[in-house]
Amino acid sequence: MSEGTTKETIRLEAFSDAVFAIAITILALELRLPDGDGDVRLRDELLDLWPAYVAYLLSFSTILIMWLNHHALLLWVRRAEGKLLVANGVLLMLVAAVPFPTTLVSHHLGDSGGRLALAAFCGLFAAITLAFAWVWATVVRHRRDIAPALPDREVRATAWHLSISFAGYLAALGLALVNALAGLGLALGMAAFWLWAAYRRHRAALET
Q: Where are the domains of the chain?
């Protein structure tokens, strides 16, 4: 592998890591200070902010897990090409937008707008799954040149996981429109699923 090829791969990883880090940091800005004075009022206002805590926890954990899966994907990549950079750029564009539906959820989860807010949240993660699938498809399509060590079993496993994720987030979107808490529960389940997938993917990449 040439020095230029290695440098381009490092730049791809560094830029991606920076976007994930910025997106995950911005989420904390929604954890605003309450206005209450006195122990009782402050306690009540802190309790009333529970949607912000839930939205932060869900978004932070999901972005973190996405980063783990993205890192595992790039373990296979030995060369960065234009098509991969474009697909990865679209993925990062959607990741950078996560704070917006997070703010919607934190402001509306406890009121009548909660269902639509959570549906928007789940819809974005369905779109992120499609973008991740585009990145993965680009790697697979050009794996002879950019990921020569990528085995067929990993191609099949990741394709299956992406299909489950997309269907899961669409189902969470539909549930959210009926019952916000049911949609939230399925979204948390999808985060747990991708945490397991990230662990499996890292182990597969390191053992090859």
A: 3-207
